[in-house]
């Protein structure tokens, strides 16, 4: 029979994982106009509503002589700069390190003045990978892992998401185009990273697998935390609030 | 170089997967094969024994999600035993413990299986 294993020495991975927190705090971020993450819990792929997808985006960094750990160091250091234009990532002041929280402003439609305010927590980070976990209210309940590895003589960069749309509204938006926009987002990010490290014509390959076709109706009530609905409400009521402010 | 070992034992209606070494995304084939053997053998519960596991990264924890989906699809329970305080914290942090039943050891896991069978 197996007894519960003691912890005589810290596990080799101990320093790479975030420590558990009941509620998130974005106090380590500056410059973000809205903090819609503090006070929220994290929500992974098990806590979402929609179908569960695993998406893997890879790019071979031909022409670059960076090692996997050098690629990850660059990616962590300059993460916001690799995002597509119009999307904002407010990195934690302490950098991408376990337990840190970053805030995001995402345009649901490219070029739109309406921004979805949300964030991520750094769940795990080591020299060759790092993983984000989403908070309640994010459009996706997800883990996203960014990693690099050697394939023969070439370093390969990869982003892999394990994601479910968080609520019925997000699932509908995902089916109506959000899914494709999300794919485009990560492809552009990998292309930007590849160009930065010296790959002139990056080619991103995509593998998408539906892990679970079932919808988790017990999480339909995630709607109450929806960043999408909160943003829509703020946008629709903006004129009224403006009139009241003017007295 | 990642080294994963998966040994499969049978105990009544349950199969016990003893995980050893490093559990990372590179463990996918071994873990899937071991889990497949357990389910194909008719197990109604799969107990993951983490006592000999030495290392797990976020790729490894991602594999647990896919195992959980496979278990649900097969109508089997997924349980975890032999977790150190550190790995218990990780299951709590990732909220996997809301879906994977965590027990101190095989005895309590088997008792939980028996209890449900008697209901």
Layout of strands and helices, then pairs:
The complex is a heterodimer of chains A (247) and B (119).
Chain A (H helix, E strand, L loop, with lengths): L51 E9 L7 H10 L10 E3 L10 E6 L9 E10 L3 E5 L6 E12 L2 E12 L2 H29 L7 E9 L14 H20 L1
Antiparallel strand pairs in A: 1-7, 1-8, 2-3, 3-4, 4-5, 5-6, 6-7
Chain B lengths: L3 E8 L2 E10 L4 H13 L4 E12 L1 H17 L2 E5 L3 H9 L7 E2 L3 H13 L1
Parallel strand pairs in B: 2-3, 3-4, 4-5
Antiparallel strand pairs in B: 1-2
Explain how this protein is built.
The complex is a heterodimer of chains A (247) and B (119). Chain A is an alpha+beta fold and 247 residues long. Chain A contains three helices and eight strands. Chain A has an eight-stranded antiparallel sheet with strand order 2-3-4-5-6-7-1-8. In chain A, a hairpin with a 3-residue loop joins β4 and β5. The longest helix of chain A has 29 residues. Chain B is α/β, with parallel strands linked by helices and 119 residues long. Chain B contains four helices and five strands; from the N terminus they run ββαβαβαβα. In chain B, β4, α3 and β5 form a beta-alpha-beta unit. In chain B, α1 runs parallel beside α2. The mean pLDDT of chain B is 93. Classes of the chains: A alpha+beta (247), B alpha/beta (119).
């Amino acid at each position: 029979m197996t007894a519960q294993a003691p912890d005589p020495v810290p596990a080799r991975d101990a320093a790479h994982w975030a420590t558990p927190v009941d509620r998130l705090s974005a106090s380590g971020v500056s410059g973000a106009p809205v903090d819609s993450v503090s006070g929220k819990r994290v929500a992974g792929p098990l806590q979402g509503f929609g179908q569960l997808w695993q998406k893997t985006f890879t790019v071979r960094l031909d022409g670059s002589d960076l090692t996997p750990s050098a690629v990850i160091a660059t990616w962590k250091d300059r993460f916001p700069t690799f995002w597509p234009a119009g999307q904002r990532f407010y990195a934690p002041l302490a950098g991408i390190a376990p337990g840190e929280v970053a805030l995001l402003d995402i345009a649901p439609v490219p070029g739109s003045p309406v921004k979805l305010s949300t964030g991520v927590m750094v769940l795990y980070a080591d020299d060759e990978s790092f993983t984000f976990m989403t908070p309640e209210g994010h459009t996706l309940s997800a883990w996203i892992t960014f990693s690099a590895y050697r394939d023969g003589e070439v370093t390969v960069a990869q982003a892999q998401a394990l994601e479910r749309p968080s609520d019925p509204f997000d699932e509908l938006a995902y089916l109506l185009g959000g899914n494709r926009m999300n794919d485009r987002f990560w492809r552009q990010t990998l292309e930007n990273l590849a160009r930065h490290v010296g790959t002139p014509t990056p080619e991103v390959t995509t593998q998408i697998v539906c892990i679970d076709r079932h919808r988790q109706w017990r999480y339909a009530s995630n709607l109450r935390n929806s960043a999408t609905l909160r943003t829509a409400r703020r946008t629709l009521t903006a004129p009224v609030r403006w009139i009241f402010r003017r007295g | 170089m990642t080294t994963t070992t998966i040994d499969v034992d049978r105990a009544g209606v349950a199969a016990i997967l003893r995980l050893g070494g490093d559990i990372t995304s590179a463990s996918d084939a071994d873990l899937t094969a071991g889990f497949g053997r357990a389910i194909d053998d008719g197990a109604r519960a799969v107990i993951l024994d983490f006592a000999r596991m030495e290392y797990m990264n976020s790729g490894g924890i991602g594999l647990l999600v896919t195992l959980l989906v496979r278990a649900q699809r097969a109508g089997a329970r997924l349980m975890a035993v032999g977790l150190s305080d550190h790995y218990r914290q990780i299951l709590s942090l990732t909220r996997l413990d809301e879906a994977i039943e965590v027990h101190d050891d095989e005895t309590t896991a088997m008792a939980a299986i028996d209890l449900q069978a008697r209901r």
